Amino acid sequence: MQSRDLWRLGTLMLLGLAVGLTVGAASWGLLAGALVYISIVHRDLAHLLKWLRNRKTYSAPERSGIVEDLSLEIDYLRERHKKRKKKLSAYLRQFRKATRALPDATVVLDNQDEVRWANDAARAVLGVKWPTDAGQRVTNLFREPRLRKFMQERATSRSDTIEIESPIDSERQLSVVTAPYGSNQRLLVARDVTQMYRANQTRRDFVANVSHELRTPLTVIRGYLENLIDRGDECPPGWELALEQMSSHATRMSNLVEELLLLSRLESETAVREPERVDVAGMLTEIHAQARALSGDKEHLFSLEAASDIHLNGARAELFSAFSNLVFNAVHFSPPRSVISIRWYRDKDGAHFAVEDKGIGIGEEHIARLCERFYRVDPSRLRANGVGGTGLGLAIVKHVLAHHQASLSITSTIGSGSRFSADFPPAQIYASEAAGSQSRRDAG
Ligand code: ADP
Fold first, then answer.
1. Is residue 211 classed as helix, strand or coil in its secondary structure?
2. pTM for the complete prediction?
3. Which of 300, 333, 369, 381 to mutate to test the pocket of ligand 1 (most atoms within 8 A of CB)?
């Protein structure tokens, strides 16, 4: 209690006591003093309430002890709140201005995928108009089927992106990403990547053109070299080794050119153009035979287990190239007479082609980069061992699998071996008329 209140209460009680004593009723006098004090406080509180409700008409309570202090405290808090609100509004204005000016289209979606907010670029890039499209479901606004599917699948990982033509201008390429936030809300960001797309296109065309131009001269050179090797006895002494080396390098260059051409063809398409039914088990028997020939003196111990009733919907030549690449790599990178197991099977996640070897293995740090073109773990060692691959094999595998909506998973331990698995979703499996799972098992 404030001193002013104490003084007031004291005075009123004394006054009440004095009056009470004079009339011979001291306690009634005290009670009357207390009641007067209570009514004064009540009046001040009523004033405070009126002032709080209508500050323009009423002034703040004055000279009323604790009630006056209360009004001062309320005033101070109000001022502080006002300043904070002003500051926050300024921040919000700044933030809105910045997001509106963002060159990337940004759309805020609620848990029903309805538009909550969009910036100016969203209109120009995606055709989402704010505020006209407020509350519209985003999948109803996009006509592009791939984008609709992408949005419907509700990607949960931030790294999930899709590249599409702009729905507004087919000359522009967009990279679209969604980022989840809050309680099941999402942010949709679309970036114009036309420049990068064109640069990539130019690079792809350049590689394809150069490879194409090199093809014919290399064929001619190889032809002449083979001719010269066949007529080795007519060549000057000492030329034999040179001719052999020239021929092996020309063959390597030729393989490189063929793989570059295959890669640029794979890159130019996003899916298999004319899918056919592929008998994977039959194909693996062929690959197995080729791998045994490649193994030669190394006499690897192959184990082949393939379910003959699981067929794929895809491109046979592409799948042959990818699967043989994985098997031939196992041959190249594992020691003589070690076991190489090849499996083709199905489970609840789809169909899987797995190659497991007991070879040199791959360090953890290399695994993420293995599918980059020309990436080799130890190129000098490969050359020394005469295993001079092109370094394009796994890049081709990756593209082939992407065409078939499949993915490659790699697990490996240095010195113990590696496992490469191509995982196909159930949708990619050709609906088979054969019931039950028959397995073809070969060994040797
Ligand atoms: P390459 O033509 O060199 O075989 P790839 O793209 O097929 O090219 O493979 C890239 C690199 O990955 C290889 O050079 C090798 O270092 C590593 N690699 C691939 N498969 C295996 C394997 N089964 N065991 C160990 N290393 C492997």
1. helix
2. 0.67
3. 333
